[in-house]
Design brief:
Oligomer: single chain
Strand order of the largest sheet: 2-3-5-6
Shape: elongated
CATH topology of the domain at 6-35 and 124-282 and 344-459: Outer membrane efflux proteins (OEP)
Radius of gyration: 41 Å
CATH architecture of the domain at 6-35 and 124-282 and 344-459: Up-down Bundle
Order of helices and strands: HEHHEEHHEHHEHEHHH
């Protein structure tokens, strides 16, 4: 920037306290991404969704159960129907006897079981796809949240930097007003100038101080906002302003950069559509049957012998004999399960999900149109901001010359104080406009980066 020279920036940085560390743009963005609570929470959600993908893959594994029990009790049998409501029935077995017997012995049951739903017309594959689509959606949500936060932090950084630059301009203005006032006071006391000039100069000094204090208060507010976005509590930032004294590299090429289909917001909305479409496929699949393989191996032990019904003495109280298996059974099979009433239910679930998918597609169209409009507006703003940035030095140069001329005329009695104040206002305004033009150029570049979805267009400048 021609109106602001690099040595001036170095001088301003040297005015910072020795212990104050200059916070660069990249450092501010990186710290914000690492510490901001919303981003960290969405990272956890994305990691959890990826874990659910692994879970869905492992759901295809067969169920393998083993169990064992050792009991002590009676074995009376009785003819008659029974239903084990709530699983509370007792599986004691024995022949019916004429009388109740309280003879008891040890017994045991050992079981190994496998059950594998090996074919369900791709249902498990659909579940994995749904879990993967959900993980993709949360990952895209994280990506667009990081992108949006990077833009917010960069904008807050530029906003604070603009406040600091304007505060310096008002400080320079106050110093000019004080210098003029001191000169007027000396000359008024010697009778060379009327006393009203001294009074007007005092009023200008008070006004300059009030304006400066307003800017200082605003800088504090902006610093707090940046600290919040960075996930910190400190609000005293020394910012790097050296980049304001140059044009962004490749600015003419950036203006012509096209809108990107890989914009983080577009990717997020597409991931929502994909997740909904995968749910549609899963719901259709759930109406189909499932084939299962199953097998069981069972051994039993009992302290009651096979002749107990005719010989009550065929019973032992020995624990070891009671729990040592003496009988075994196995079973292998293939099963088909098809819930026919799932057909009407899944058809409605599928229809409902199709409507959700259609709604998400409409949302994508709306955000796509909005992003295209943003890109067009960003291009226009960037072009105008660049023109203002290049024009600002001429305004500063002319207003500096006008102020010097009016001050010289006033000091020689050829102009009144009003002319000096008017020239002073013009100089202050031109310096303020120059600061605003410099920051506005970089904010316009940030707006372009946000519109096309490529934060590198902005952050790679630092």
């Amino acid at each position: 920037m021609r109106c602001l020279q690099l040595p001036v920036a170095v001088f301003l940085l040297s005015l910072l306290p020795a212990q104050a560390q200059v916070l660069g743009m990249k450092e501010a963005v990186e710290q914000a991404v690492q510490h901001y609570g919303t981003i960290r929470s969405k990272q956890d959600y994305a990691d959890a969704a990826q874990a659910r993908v692994d879970l869905a893959k492992r759901d295809y594994l067969p169920n393998v159960n083993i169990s064992g029990q050792q009991v002590y009790g009676t074995a009376n049998g009785q003819l008659g129907p029974m239903y084990g409501l709530g699983g509370l029935g007792v599986a004691s077995s024995g022949l019916p006897t004429a009388e109740q017997s309280w003879d008891a012995a040890y017994g045991a049951l050992y079981v190994a079981n496998i059950n594998w739903e090996f074919f369900a017309f791709g249902r498990n594959r659909r579940r994995i796809a749904v879990a993967g689509a959900e993980a993709g959606q949360l990952d895209r949500d994280l990506g667009q949240e990081v992108f949006a936060h990077e833009v917010k932090v960069a904008d807050a950084y530029l906003n604070l930097l603009a406040g600091q630059r304007l505060t310096l301009s008002q400080q320079r203005n106050l110093e000019r007003v004080l210098a003029v006032r001191d000169n007027i006071v000396v000359r008024a006391r010697s009778g060379m100038l009327p006393g009203v000039d001294s009074t007007m100069a005092d009023a200008e000094v008070s006004n300059a101080r009030i304006v400066l204090n307003k800017y200082r208060a605003e800088v504090r507010v902006r610093a707090n906002h940046l600290a919040q976005l960075m996930g910190t509590t400190g609000a005293a930032f020394g910012l790097d302003s050296t980049f304001l004294f140059r044009e962004p590299a490749g600015i003419d090429r950036i203006v012509t950069t096209a809108d990107s289909a890989e914009h983080p917001l577009r990717r997020y909305f597409r991931s929502r559509i994909d997740h909904s479409a995968q749910l549609e496929r899963l719901y259709r699949n759930e109406a189909l049957p499932a084939f299962s393989l199953f097998g069981i191996y069972q051994t039993r032990a009992s302290g009651i012998g096979p002749h107990y019904a005719t010989d009550p003495g065929d019973l032992t109280m020995d624990y070891a004999r009671g729990v040592t298996p003496t009988r075994a059974n196995y079973l292998l099979g293939v099963g088909l399960v098809w819930n026919l009433t799932s057909l009407p239910r899944t058809s409605k679930r599928t229809a409902s999900q199709q409507l959700i998918t259609a709604g998400l597609e409409e949302e994508y169209k709306a955000i796509d149109t909005e992003l295209r409009t943003r890109d067009d507006a960003a291009n226009a703003k960037l072009i105008l901001a660049l023109a203002n940035y290049r024009e600002a030095p001429e305004q500063v140069r002319a207003s500096n010359l006008a102020y010097a001329q009016q001050l010289a005329l006033y000091n020689n009695g050829l102009a009144d104080l009003t002319d000096v104040i008017t020239a002073q206002y013009a100089l202050n305004r031109s310096e303020t406009d120059a600061d605003i033009a410099a920051v506005d150029l970089w904010r316009s570049l940030l707006l372009k980066a946000a519109a096309v979805g490529d934060f590198g267009l902005f952050i790679d400048q630092f």
